[in-house]
Structures are given as structure tokens and as C-alpha cells.
Amino acid sequence: MISIHDHSGIEALRKRLRIDPQALRRLRGAFLRTFRGAESALEELPSAERVEFAGAVRFHDLELAEVQDSKLDGASKLLFRTADGRAIESVILRIKTGRTALCVSTQTGCAGGCLFCATGRLKGVRNLTTAEILDQAAQAGERLRGEGRPLRNVVFMGMGEPFHNEENLHAALEELWGRNGFHLSDRHLLVSTLGIPDAMRRLAHRFPRVGLALSLHSVRQEIRDSLMPLTRRWPLSELRAAVSELNALQDHPVMIEYLMLGGLTDTDADLAQLVQWLDGLRVHVNLIPYNPGMAGDTGEAAIRPSPPERLEEFLAALKRAGFRATRRHSLGGDIAAACGQLARRREPGA
Ligand code: SF4
After folding, report:
1. Pairing mode, strands 153-156 and 189-193
2. Most informative mutation of 105, 108, 110, 127 for ligand 1 (most atoms within 8 A of CB)
3. How much is the pLDDT for 332?
4. C-alpha distance from residue 172 to each of 155, 164, 176, 250 (Å)
5. Distance between CA atoms of 35 and 41, rounded to whole angstroms?
6. Looking at residue 258, what is its pLDDT?
7. Which has more pLDDT, 270 or 179?
8. What letter would DSSP give residue 93?
9. Atom of ligand 1 at shortest distance to CA of 120?
């Protein structure tokens, strides 16, 4: 069967069945832009070709196994199963302002191995296909349509390091903002990375309006190396040079994600060095309160949250130094959907 996201395969089928290109365009619009679902979208085709087209095309690459709705806020976790039996998660974020965002996964786990992240402890990581990435948006969009909420933002902050699956990431981004795809604004797309300088540059060159969030967390090399072992190969000076290049290519600031860990990333020295590191860069600093669920059962005793008042001091100091800075309010803490918690706590269908 051909995935609905496989353009060349679908075009070959269209030619074989002699379907009018306009009818196919309407079907894609109904499925990807207005999220009417496969059955309703198929009505855009003439009835003579509809059955054969439906029999040859796969509209979904993931099986939605379970939905967990937060009782605290507007988050819902979607637990999917892939055709080869892997479990992945996406999170719908219904933000108070009325905006609706979807956090998607790009891998079935992550080789990043960050100490504070549950996803990094999963074994047997594989890259998701472009169709598997896009189906998270298609299924979430359909769900949200039923609530009368349009899906506006897609953030690549779920399971996996997006740049470890760069080819499929780029293909998914093309489809998310392409006129013939989901047609979202590229300004409403955001990719979060642990910081791979060359991949950051490639993203900014190809998608200058797509946002980038850098998980910085510390500008002390030894601390960052211990928190995020995979980042050892890219010294902080190289990372800073990449952010500076991105600033020259993009008209929006780079989002700096900074996890507030007691004694590790929140000392006066950390603050002074962070201000120095950021000096001259166009950034928006997002301070992330450490979520106790992140460490799970790894026994990472060194990892503990900063006191809330320390976070406020950091925030105020960064603002005084002239930076845009905010505190992240994670949603879905009660369903393990907050940052760093996506780790198949419960296998779909279990
Ligand atoms: S924080 Fe990101 S890069 Fe690090 S292990 Fe988790 S998913 Fe991977």
C-alpha cells in the first residue's frame, strides 16, 4: 500500500487511475488541512475511482492505542503503536491563550542519554519514517477538529533528537508547511535539539523561518558534558558560533532552553557565565523548572530542582541583562507528558 504522504507513489496511482489532479488536491486538502478524516476526504474523488484508490492507499502509518487526558491542564498524551510494534508518544497542548500545539516524536527513543530525560533511557532506538512523523499531526488534527480547535503549531520536542533523523525531519517540515501538505505557517514550527552545530546551520539555511530551540542547560563545559554526554563532541564555543550564524540567517531569536537544577546549573557562577555566553546573541531564554518525574528511577541523586525563588532570581537577572526570558510552564505533569517525561511509561494497549 502507498502512504498518503508518499507524493511520487500517490502521483503514480493518480495517473494509473486517471484521477483529475484537482480532485486529488481536494482530497489532500480535506485530509491534511481541514482534518476531515480519510472517509470524508475520499468523497472528493469520483465514485468510480474511489474504491480502488482507497484500497491502494494507507492513510495512517500509526495505530492510536490510547489517549490520556490531563486532569490538571489542557494536555493529552497520544500513545501510538508503529507497524513493527514500537510505542511512541505525542502530546497535544491546549494552551490557555487558545493556541493549540502538538509535540511530535522523531524516534522511538533517543541516543542522547541526557541524565534528566526519561526518553534517553529507552533501548532499541529507531528513526521514525516521514509518514510516521506526519501521521502524528494528521491524527491529532482530526481529534482537535472534533473539539473545534485548529492545530496551529507543531514542535519537534517529543521522543528523539530530531537531527539524528535529519532527512525525515526535513521531509516532514516540507510537508507541514507546504501548500500541498498541511499548509501550516513555517513560523509555527519549532525544532528542539541538544545542539548539533552543523545540523542547526543546515536547518536554518533550508528553513529560515522555522524556529530552533537549543537545549543548553549549562555553559560550564564539564557540567554540560556530564548532563548531556552526547554533546561532548561539540565544545560550547562551537555551539555559540552556530547560534550566532543562525541569528544572521533568521529574523527570530533562537530559543535557549535552560533547565534549573539545584547546585548544578543555578549557582551565581552559572548565571554570570550564562550572561557572558549569551552576550551579543539574539535569543529568548526559557527557564525550565526541573520536573521530578524526569529522573524516573535512575537514581540520579545529583539531579534536584532549583528552589522556585532561585528560578525567579535567574529570570529577573537575565531580564536586567537585557535578554528576553520566560519561565516554562510544562503541561501534562500528571500524565508523564511534561518535558523529559516521554518514555512509554505505559505501553500502548497494555
Ligand atoms: S533530552 Fe532530548 S536529546 Fe536528551 S535524551 Fe531526552 S530526547 Fe534525547
Report:
1. parallel
2. 110
3. 67
4. 12, 14, 6, 20
5. 8
6. 95
7. 270
8. E
9. 5
Q: 87-101, 188-202, 254-268: which range is least confident on average?
A: 87-101
Q: What is the pLDDT of residue 349?
A: 33
Q: Check the CA dihedral 30-32-34-38 and report its sign.
A: positive
Averaged pLDDT, 84-101: 91
> For residue 329, which amino acid is it?
H
Cα 251 to Cα 248: distance, rounded to the nearest angstrom: 8
The DSSP secondary structure of 275-321, one letter per residue, reads HHHHTT--EEEEEEE--GGGGTTS--TT--BPPHHHHHHHHHHHHHT
- The more confidently predicted of residues 5 and 116 is 5
Taking the CA of residue 117 as reference, the ligand 1 atom at the shortest distance is 6
- Ligand 1, from 117, 214, 232, 233: best to mutate by most atoms within 8 Å of Cβ? 117
Residues with CB under 6 A from ligand 1: 110, 112-114, 117, 119-120, 160-161, 194
Write the DSSP assignment of 201-253 as a string of letters.
Answer: HHHHHH-TTSEEEEE---SSHHHHHHHSGGGGGS-HHHHHHHHHHHHHH-SSP
pLDDT, mean of residues 60-78: 92
